[in-house]
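User: Here's a structure from my thesis project, written as structure tokens. My advisor, Dr. K., wants to see whether a designed sequence matches the one we expressed. Can you design one independently, without my sequence as a hint?
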């Protein structure tokens, strides 16, 4: 990464001696220098401003002003003499005699070889606010903050308050954390209100203000946004992995999909009516009907969940016999149909639940100010949300309450549930009193982490990694305590509280350590979503790890049903890719869906492209999120193959205007990066990447570089397999390490004529049999190849081979 021009630290002390590591703290006349293996923190003794630098002395983070503290109605700064105390080998306390005789403390400790934790406080006075001003370089962009709803992913020029709240959209995963293209991460460890101004008031200042008594920050360095994110997550926890079965589509029911309704403008195509209201009676048997209906339509389904109807009261964790007389049997029936079942839940209980009395008597709920407990009477909106402010949340900070609620969760899991959809979590009252004297205002946002943690730990203990949990609310640390995330309630529209918002929020989360995202295709707030909105949303949702909807395909036209079937099978066929990316995310923190800056940070033209993303590093997606007849698509450096016409190749960097939807709604901008190697698992012909005869094989779709090499590491159900592809003027060679998989290679071959021959085995060459008929090739069980002149594809079948894999496609002698 080429950095923009910035000052360097004029201190030879920062250069690491290859034979000797510098001590943790080194003092100069004007500075304290804290040393890690890969980073340096410099604190000015006169101003107490901080800089974070690499071992070559290059600054990445710089305070622009002195840290300021709000004390008794005015802002003051730390100034004066200092004294150092050693608390631990890599834990230093600096005591400062400050302005107006006020004393301050700065505690610095090492959190990894890449970063530092710095806590600033005053032991003398009650501080009620802290402000920090960070320098923004002329060429620098800022991302993160959790799940953002301000219509932006690149946040420079914006200002906002991070305070979770219910609404449309649901703002429930704000995090005082960001990453910079100057290759550092910043985290303020405060779970309440934090205000950010990212160069809006002054273009070169990033201002952070919080009503907190001490400022506890973590600064982490890296060589790129990729490595910065990984380095930060090594401190807070790498993302947990979802189960492989979660990569089949999810369908869920809020109301009876077979109840009498109306078509609301949908083209007539048979049984496409939608329920007339949000509260049609829903029974457990309707889930069986839904699954069977989808099976009849050849639409895959792997996950469903029960909304609040499954409970006899909020939140008893006891099933309602009116919903199903035998819920355990129902869950088993769904499992036999290939569907894993989750259940809706919330972090509170009510006076109608059987566990309410015990919760009150033993003090397991958060407290109202004063002595009177909440009465537990709640008002529920038509859409299922709490209306009003309540103090019936479980106090997860209380160890006894924590263990008690784990037992409540276990009670539900005994039914056979494979996970939970965690609703709410963003409404803790600011004046609530929690265990240990905590106040709601200080943990309003971070309460979500405790909510995530208790369910994750309980599910992990029972199922290992074989479960799915989908929270609405999250905070820093949640990536290690959940294996998915959905964006909450949105309207079924192209407005800013609909489809566009979910695209921006998904990409914001990609910087915040939550790589497994999902969206309610078509939104939640209305059932009469227009067909074009549902279709465009489905195109976006199919390219996320979790593909879900509560809008039944048969509510729409036959063409829309066909398109959804196609998208759902394309999504399902990509299971080996999803699982590979999931394992990569678990190991490195890399998001599954990535803002363009992730892979193309050296290209500033990608920095503010907020409505495109990469799936892994091979697929570029530019979803249609409005009603315009065309949209701009930015293609970074490299060659990009049109997914819909693989003979069309565009060289980047280049901005193009994509107007395919003037002709049809059934396509959207989708491009394959030249050199891509994409694993698939195919059992039918719906996606166009195989046939029923593909079942049992790993289909490796390959788009070789015209002249060059590419690699891909498959990390799916067995050992990791490294694939190497190289194309020259004469040959295409494919190599892979020892494996027990059967492979079908689908190679994009633009030579215009068939290859001369194909050889197998690098040392003991063996000719691979050529098939002249595609049908014979498909049904054969022998190693062989077929060239499709019309589509310019080479198909190669290689059965199990315990030795190293090697294929040479000879194009010309």
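Assistant: Designed independently from the structure alone:
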């Amino acid at each position: 990464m080429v950095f923009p021009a910035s000052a360097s630290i004029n201190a030879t002390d920062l250069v690491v001696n290859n034979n000797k590591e510098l001590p943790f703290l080194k003092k100069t006349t004007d500075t304290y220098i804290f040393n890690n293996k890969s980073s340096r923190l410099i604190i000015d003794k006169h101003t107490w401003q901080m800089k974070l630098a690499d071992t070559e002395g290059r600054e990445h983070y710089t305070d622009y002003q002195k840290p300021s503290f709000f004390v008794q109605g005015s802002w003051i700064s730390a100034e004066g003499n200092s004294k150092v105390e050693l608390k631990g080998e890599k834990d230093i306390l600096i005591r400062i005699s400050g302005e107006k005789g006020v004393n301050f403390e700065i505690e610095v400790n090492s959190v990894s070889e890449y970063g530092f934790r710095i806590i600033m406080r005053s032991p003398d006075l009650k501080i009620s606010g802290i402000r920090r001003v960070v320098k923004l370089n002329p060429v620098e962009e800022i991302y993160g903050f959790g799940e953002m709803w301000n219509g932006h992913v690149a946040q420079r020029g914006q200002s906002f308050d991070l305070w979770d709240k219910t609404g449309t959209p649901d703002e429930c995963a704000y995090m005082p954390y960001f990453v910079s293209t100057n290759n550092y991460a910043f985290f303020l460890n405060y779970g309440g209100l934090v205000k950010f101004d990212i160069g809006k008031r002054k273009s070169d200042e990033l201002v952070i203000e919080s009503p907190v008594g001490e400022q506890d920050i973590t600064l982490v360095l890296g060589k790129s946004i990729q490595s910065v994110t990984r380095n930060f997550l090594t401190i807070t926890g790498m993302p947990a992995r979802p189960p492989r079965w979660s990569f089949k589509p999810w369908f869920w029911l809020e109301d009876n999909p077979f109840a009498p309704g109306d078509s609301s403008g949908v083209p007539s195509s048979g049984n496409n009516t939608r329920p007339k209201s949000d509260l049609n009676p829903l029974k457990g048997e309707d889930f069986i009907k839904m699954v069977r209906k989808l099976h009849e339509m050849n639409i895959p389904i792997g996950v469903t969940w029960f909304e609040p109807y499954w409970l006899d009261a909020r939140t008893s964790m006891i099933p309602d016999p009116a919903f199903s007389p035998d819920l355990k049997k129902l869950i088993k029936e769904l499992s036999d149909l290939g569907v894993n079942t989750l259940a809706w839940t919330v972090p509170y209980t009510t006076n109608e639940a059987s566990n309410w009395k015990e919760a009150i008597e033993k003090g397991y709920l958060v407290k109202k100010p004063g002595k009177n407990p909440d009465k537990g009477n709640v008002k529920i909106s038509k859409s299922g949300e709490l209306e009003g402010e309540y103090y019936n949340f479980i106090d997860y900070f209380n160890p006894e309450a924590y263990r008690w609620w784990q037992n409540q969760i276990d009670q539900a899991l005994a039914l056979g549930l494979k996970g939970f959809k965690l609703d709410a979590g963003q409404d803790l009252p600011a004046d609530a009193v929690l265990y240990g004297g905590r106040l709601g205002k200080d943990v309003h946002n971070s309460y979500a982490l405790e909510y995530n943690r208790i369910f994750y730990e309980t599910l992990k203990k029972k199922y290992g990694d074989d479960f799915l949990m989908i929270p609405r609310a999250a905070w820093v640390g949640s990536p290690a305590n959940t294996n998915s995330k959905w964006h909450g309630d949105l309207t079924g529209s192209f407005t800013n509280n609909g489809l566009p918002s979910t695209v921006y929020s998904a990409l914001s989360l990609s910087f915040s350590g939550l790589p497994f995202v999902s969206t309610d295709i078509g939104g939640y707030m209305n059932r009469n979503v227009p067909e074009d909105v549902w279709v465009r949303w489905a195109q976006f949702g199919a390219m996320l790890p979790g593909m879900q909807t509560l809008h039944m395909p048969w509510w729409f036209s036959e063409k829309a049903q066909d398109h959804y079937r196609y998208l759902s099978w394309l999504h399902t066929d990509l299971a080996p890719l999803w699982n590979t990316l999931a394992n990569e995310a678990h190991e490195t923190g890399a998001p599954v869906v990535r803002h363009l800056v992730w892979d193309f940070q050296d290209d500033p033209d990608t920095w503010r492209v907020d409505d495109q993303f990469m799936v892994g590093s091979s697929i570029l997606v530019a979803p249609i999120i409005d009603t315009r007849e065309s949209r701009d698509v930015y293609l970074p450096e490299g060659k990009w193959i049109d997914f819909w016409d693989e003979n069309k190749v565009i060289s980047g960097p280049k901005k193009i205007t994509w107007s395919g939807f003037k002709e049809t709604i059934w396509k959207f901008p989708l491009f394959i990066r030249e050199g891509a190697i994409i694993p698939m698992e195919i059992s039918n012909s719906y996606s166009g990447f195989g046939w029923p005869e593909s079942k049992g094989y790993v289909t490796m779709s390959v788009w070789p570089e015209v002249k060059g090499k590419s690699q891909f590491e498959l990390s799916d159900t067995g050992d990791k397999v490294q694939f190497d592809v190289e194309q020259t003027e004469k040959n295409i060679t494919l190599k892979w390490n020892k494996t027990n998989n059967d492979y079908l290679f689908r190679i994009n071959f633009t030579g215009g004529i068939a290859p001369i021959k194909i050889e197998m085995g690098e040392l003991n060459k063996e000719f691979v049999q050529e098939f002249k008929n595609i049908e014979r090739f498909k049904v054969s069980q022998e190693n062989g190849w077929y060239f499709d002149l019309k589509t310019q594809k080479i198909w190669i079948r290689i059965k199990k081979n315990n030795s190293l894999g090697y294929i040479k496609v000879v194009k010309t002698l």
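When you compare it with your expressed construct, this may help: The two ends are 42 Å apart (CA to CA).
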